[in-house]
Amino acid sequence: MRKLEITLTEEQYQHIQEEIKYGGRTMLEEETFGGYEITLHVGVPNIYTYIEMSYINKIDLGEVEWSFSKNFQSLKN
């Protein structure tokens, strides 16, 4: 199994957490169910890579580093 690893700054991580909390409160108030989407945009060749989150709002979280790991073992049996 392969692993996709995206490295976030502390600010990006906090922004995601705040949006998840806000979205959860909004969904409860409106009595709706939903989810969020995290999109990794990669320019070819790998010149500029950024991440977006869509939940209640669409947020450009900025540039990130990412990689595939080759020797990832699943914790599932």
SSE inventory with pairings:
Elements: E1 3-7, H1 10-30, E2 37-42, E3 49-54, E4 58-63, E5 65-69
Antiparallel strand pairs: 1-5, 2-3, 3-4
Helical stretch count?
1
User: Could you say which overall geometry the principal axes of the C-alpha atoms support?
Assistant: elongated
Major β-sheet profile: 3 strands, antiparallel
> Structural class, please?
alpha+beta
**Termini separation:** 13 Å
Q: Strand-residue fraction?
A: 35-45%
The overall number of domains is: 1
Strand order, sheet with most strands: 2-3-4
User: Segments where pLDDT lies below 50 for 5+ residues?
Assistant: none
Kindly state the number of beta strands: 5
Mean pLDDT: 87
Order of helices and strands: EHEEEE
Q: Level of helix content?
A: 25-40%
Summarize the structure in words:
Strand 2 and strand 3 (49-54) form a beta hairpin. This protein has 77 residues and is of the alpha+beta class. It is 27% helix and 36% strand. It has one helix and five strands. The chain is elongated, with a radius of gyration of 15 Å.
Task: Write a brief caption for the model.
This protein has one domain (3-66). The chain has 1 helix and 5 strands. The protein has one helix at residues 10-30; strands at 3-7, 37-42, 49-54, 58-63, 65-69.
